[in-house]
Amino acid sequence: MSRKVMCVFGTRPEANKMCPLVKELESRKEIEALVCVTAQHREMLDQMLAIFDVHPQFDLNIMEKQQTLTTITSKAMLGLEEVFRQVKPDIVLVHGDTTTTFAAALAAFYNHVPIGHVEAGLRSFDLQSPYPEEANRRLVGVLADVHFSPTVNNAENLKRENVQAPIFITGNTAIDALKLTVKEDYVFEDEALRQLDFGARKVIAITAHRRENYGQPMENIMEAFAHLASNHPEVQLVYPVHLSPYVQEVAHRHLDGLDNVLLVQPLGVADMHNLLARSYMVMTDSGGLQEEAPALGKPVLVLRRETERPEAVEAGTVRVIGTDRDVLIAEAEELLREGERYHSMAHAVNPYGDGFACRRIVDDLLYFLGEKDLPAENFFAK
Ligand code: UD1
Ligand code: UDP
């Protein structure tokens, strides 16, 4: 009899990293793969589901334009409890650190459904940053019955917390998708990107959306972007703006009307990856982009005061620079000089995966469920 494995996710980054895993689950005869989306994000989730051709059996459709962490958590938990009672999955897989992730894990725990945590063990060691993600992933770390950690460092974080449940080291599923999307002859779906001459100017891919950056840090970030655009005509900034009303307002207020700043709608994942691949450098507070850009040899300036992804910092392609306006400008200008700093950062490293994370996770899961004699070999970055 096949085992019911239900993936639960709700936001863009979870979808990007879980859809390749859904495909791998669907390919295994021992598994009945089911998907429940909370739709904590609506448009940005649907964009990813369409690209990966994933069709959820359950859709809780919880998003509100002014949602709070409490409304997301409570609506997701109530909906998920119904789904879990109806389906009785053998295990629920959740991903990373969003509020959907935490709500799904807690609802599964309350309903005695085992939990597998994908992208387990990332830690910034600061509950306020990223907020609320550091709390979400720590709480799921307590509840999970099995952990799939991308890196050795992530697994060590869990062991230091005395986690007793099994931990497998698998690589990050983000890198699986990246191997399929980036192509030299890629044609962008986004009209403005299709028109852009990537050879004419140094393209800087920029994004910012984190909650702990709302307020003054976000104002500083946008002022730095505006300054860089105004003072460096040799530069082209490209910013796919998150659909959060807060982020939309602040981004457009600072950056509208600057002719070397391109504000675009959230991009499909293949557009995003190919934008990274054609960029000179990246400035972002995103978690996922910190994993993807280094694999493409692109320097990343992280617009936060910490990171839960130290591997690429240690490898030299990522610098964590905070949110002070003048520091951002100085750091970006240092890289624009294309000197030693730039060349030491612009080399491809792959500390986060080798493209086979999904296969490992499913093999490890089948082992955990007693359907296989051996787990996959752990991922070790070379
Ligand atoms: C969420 C995650 C964060 C992740 C980010 C990725 C939490 C607490 N935060 O933050 O970890 O980095 O997603 O993008 O789980 N909106 C839309 N359409 C969409 C998506 C969002 O209109 O498709 C708007 C809505 O007004 C929504 C707002 O954005 O209320 C904020 O969305 P929310 O999921 O609450 O927070 P994010 O900042 O996106
Ligand atoms: N991404 C995308 N289109 C965009 C911006 C991001 O496909 O316009 C992808 C990106 O490549 C990465 C993921 O979304 O895989 C990161 O999502 P986000 O920055 O929203 O969240 P975080 O990773 O910070 O949680």
Please provide a written account of the structure.
The structure is a single chain. The radius of gyration is 20 Å and the shape is globular. It has helices spanning about 10-25, 45-50, 70-85, 100-110, 135-145, 150-160, 175-180, 190-195, 215-230, 245-255, 270-275, 285-295, 310-315, 325-335, 340-345, 355-370, and strands at about 5-10, 30-35, 60, 90-95, 115-120, 145-150, 165-170, 200-205, 235-240, 260-265, 280-285, 300, 320. It has about 375 residues and is of the alpha/beta class. It is built from 16 helices and 13 strands. The longest helix is centred in the N-terminal third of the chain and has 19 residues, at about 70-85. The strands form two sheets. Strands 3-2-1-4-5-6-7 form a seven-stranded parallel sheet, with helices on both faces. It has a six-stranded parallel sheet with strand order 10-9-8-11-12-13, sandwiched between helices. About 50% of the residues are buried. Uridine-5'-diphosphate (UDP) binds next to helix 1, helix 11 and helix 12.
Helix-strand pattern, N to C? EHEHEHEHEHEHEHHEHEHEHEHEHEHHH
Counted beta strands: 13
Helix content: 40-55%
Low-confidence segments, ≥5 residues, pLDDT <50?
Answer: none
Distance linking N and C termini: 39 Å
Largest sheet: 7 strands, parallel
Percent strand equals 15-25%
What ligand species are in this complex?
uridine-diphosphate-N-acetylglucosamine, uridine-5'-diphosphate
For the biggest β-sheet, the strand order reads 3-2-1-4-5-6-7
Count every helix, treating DSSP H or I runs of 4 or more residues as helices.
16
